[in-house]
Design a protein that fits this description.
This protein is of the alpha+beta class. Helix 18 runs antiparallel to helix 19 (593-610).
Length: 752
């Protein structure tokens, strides 16, 4: 259904309509719905041409009113209470399955005005919308994915008198919403003129006093999770409200908001806001000495009883500097004002560019690779494995409101936990997710793997870059979708690692979406060859480099645990110049560290922000370097596959298995029992280099898995000089020396 087809039945009934952004209850940016709501078919058609996927809103006016229940069987319960039948009027069912009823006004219903009643346990019971309130029309798509539906497709009737009695019985007339920080203004104050001066658009009015802004002036866009970003203006007093956590104007007084707007504008508002009078000068905070023009009378006056003068409350002055220092400090933390050199700590005398502990192997290196609050959370869970838990915490935390104050480093990350089947990877993911309080978690955390690029686009926002976390038990589902011929999913995932905006072709045409995308999932693999098969050729073009990996060789014996989520309120983090110098030094001449250095900076940003720090510190950056050096060691073993055919896959698997066995024998210096007694011109201390080809492949079940390819793979490895066969010194029947075949081989060079 299109916007036009949904709206047409309502305008034919005479009910004014206007558009809402697709799959939302919010008008599009720039739409002044109170002025633009219409029953004009041409205007409706123009909105449909603009975007046929708009939802439809119905506006209550002098002719129509709406009664919306937010509980099951709301109307039947009301009718039973009042002793009447359910009224047969135009009826809708909301996306949540509750009844919405459309009526024609009476004098009684107009007098009731807008009313809303909540349940004792919380949540709305019903809402009566009499004027300048809107209802989402049937045919629109609810944010939860369900459609609003028609239950009775008939003309609205006059609202029954008994239903007005019910509304009045359970509610009180709407009162202007209180604002504790309002300030009484001058009679000469012009609200519209001030809005024009600052370039602020007003899109609607709430409760007759809240002037809802088109875009929050603190961030330059509309907050999706906070609909009441508004100025309080009742004709006498001025106030401000913004409930969006992390916004620089959240919780600010109207004076602080005006100071912010003046700094943003570069000049103060010239109009009159508050009265000034001589009484202000008596306030000691102005530090003004008052002098009497008359000579002092030295005679002692007769005591005269006088009435105490009335206490005059001084109007508040036009003071744009009160609390300015605190505001500037907070604006720096929020990234609104640039930092100065003197705001930061000096460059550290030394930075551990290389690992002082010289860690080796694939197991997580421990404290040296963790930092701050996230390290503390990880170490609380003694039974869990840090190699899976700490990377999971990093990626979950990336979905907080974390920013680089200079906008050079992003905070989103992709992560895969590597391990065998049923080893407990998902349990570590769940603990990480439960340990960090993610605002609007239901919208942020997505547990369905996208099956295509269009599926991914449907999971993102069409309006602003919001955090999104693909939280997947089986990450292989994403890779399988990437492998589908013609799929653009892997390219889109690569793009979203680098930026917030992507576009793609969908059924309705080209679509642009926004998102700060992170991804965390389990990857059930048994060895490096299995990894190469899963992380195959379809993902090697950039996606592999964009992942960080979690790894442990252990398995978890699950036990339930009580977890209290940590609350974080991160501020933007500054990267001093020395951080960039240290990053370049860490890369050195190793170009393969280029992408890893990006991960190091992102990890430093995430951990510093969670620690509440305004800048990257030496311990923070060093921990990020140690973490990425561990990633480097994992990448030396777990490499993406290049194979696109079964025989190429077999070749990669055999090479990987031989290399894995070589590394194991090199570390342990263990010699195969059958190699000890061989007649070879090789000392015993060097015989750990002998690899039993058949045993290695049998241990991986490769003779069963790649039966018809193994012989050719071995032949290719020998001909290309990757392995040498080991032959034993023997004598033939005539006593002449010969080389006898053995099951052992020696690695001659690595397969790149």
């Amino acid at each position: 259904m299109s916007f036009l087809s949904i709206a047409t039945p309502f305008i034919q009934l005479g009910i004014p309509v206007f558009p809402l952004s697709p799959k939302t209850k919010i008008p599009p940016s720039g739409l002044h719905f109170l002025e633009e709501a219409t029953i004009d078919p041409k205007k409706v058609a123009s909105w449909n041409e603009e975007n046929p996927d708009y939802n439809v809103a119905l506006l209550a006016n002098d002719e129509f009113c709406f009664l919306e229940f937010d509980v099951a069987k709301g109307m039947s319960t009301a009718a039973a209470e009042m002793g009447h039948e359910i009224p047969l009027t135009r009826t809708q069912v909301s996306g949540k399955g509750f009844g919405h009823y459309i009526f024609k006004h009476t004098e009684r219903s107009r007098a009731l005005g807008n009313r809303s009643v909540n349940l004792p346990e919380g949540g709305e019971w019903f809402s009566f919308r009499a004027n300048n309130k809107y209802l989402v029309g049937a045919g629109s798509l609810h944010p939860n994915g369900n459609y609003y539906q028609n239950a009775r497709d008939i003309e609205p009737i006059l609202i029954p008198e008994w239903l007005c009695d019910f509304v009045e019985k359970h509610s009180t007339p709407a009162k202007p919403v209180a604002c504790d920080t309002t300030v009484e203004v001058s009679d000469d104050f012009d609200f519209d003129d001030m809005m024009d001066f600052y370039g602020i658009g007003i899109v609607g009015e709430k409760d007759d006093v809240w002037q809802v802004v088109e875009e929050c002036p603190g961030v330059g866009y509309r907050h999706s999770g906070s609909t009441l970003t508004a100025f309080y203006w009742d004709g006498r007093s001025l106030g401000w409200s913004c409930f969006a956590q992390g916004c620089p104007l959240h919780g600010k007084s109207i004076g602080q908001v005006i100071a912010f707007l003046n700094a943003q504008k570069g000049e103060p508002y010239k109009g009159v806001i508050w009265e000034k009078s001589e009484v202000d000068l008596l306030d000691p905070k102005w530090n003004v000495e008052m002098l009497d023009d008359e000579e002092p009378n030295t005679a002692t006056p007769e005591p005269v009883a006088v009435a105490a003068p009335p206490v005059v409350e001084a109007p508040r002055p036009d003071n744009y500097t009160d609390g300015f220092d605190e505001l500037i400090a907070e604006q720096k933390l929020n990234g609104e004002i640039a930092w100065k050199a003197e705001d930061f700590q000096p460059k550290p005398e030394s930075i551990a560019i290389t690992d002082p502990g010289k860690h080796k192997g694939l197991e997580f290196p421990g404290d040296c690779a963790m930092y701050g609050c996230l390290a503390a959370i990880a170490k609380r869970h003694e039974r869990l494995h840090l190699g899976w838990l700490y990377p999971s915490l990093l990626i979950v935390a990336a979905n907080l409101d974390i920013e680089d104050a200079d906008h050079h480093v992003r905070a989103n990350e992709y992560g895969a936990l590597i391990g065998g089947v049923h080893t407990g990877k998902n349990a570590h993911m769940d603990v990480a997710l439960a340990s960090i309080r993610i605002p609007d978690r239901e919208s942020v955390v997505i547990e369905d793997a996208p099956g295509s690029h269009s599926g991914l686009m449907n999971q993102l926002s069409e309006e602003e870059p919001l955090p999104r976390l693909l939280f997947l038990d089986e990450l292989i589902n994403v890779f399988n979708a990437c492998a589908i011929q013609g799929s653009n999913l892997h390219a889109m995932l690569c793009s979203l690692w680098n930026k917030d905006k992507v576009g793609g072709s969908v059924k309705k045409g080209r679509q642009v979406v926004y998102g700060k995308l992170s991804m965390l999932g389990g990857l059930a693999i048994s060895d490096a060859a299995d990894f190469a098969r899963v992380f195959g050729a379809h993902s090697v073009k950039g996606l592999y480099d964009r992942f960080i990996f979690g790894y442990s060789e252990k398995y978890l014996k699950f036990r339930p645990t009580n977890i209290e989520a940590e609350h974080f309120d991160p501020k933007p983090v500054h990267f001093p110049q020395w951080v960039w110098d240290a990053k370049d030094e860490w890369i050195g001449d190793d170009l393969d560290r280029g992408r890893l250095s990006e991960h190091a900076l992102r990890i430093a940003l995430i951990t510093a922000a969670c620690n509440g720090e305004a800048e990257i510190t030496k311990p923070c950056l060093e921990a990020a370097f140690r973490f990425c050096e561990w990633q480097e060691r994992l990448r030396q073993v777990f490499k993406p596959g290049l194979a696109e055919t079964k025989d190429a896959e077999a070749f990669e698997a055999v090479c990987s298995a031989l290399k894995e066995q070589y590394n194991r024998q090199k570390e342990t210096r263990e010699v195969h029992p059958k190699a000890v007694s061989l007649t070879l011109d090789m000392k015993q201390e060097h015989r750990w280099k002998l690899i039993h080809f058949t045993d290695v492949l049998n241990s991986k079940s490769y003779y069963r898995k790649y039966a018809r390819f193994i012989s050719q793979v071995r032949k290719t490895l020998i001909e290309e000089g990757f392995i040498h066969e080991v032959r034993e010194d023997e004598e033939d029947d005539r006593g002449k020396p010969k080389k006898g075949k053995t099951p052992f081989v020696v690695l001659a060079k690595d397969v790149k």
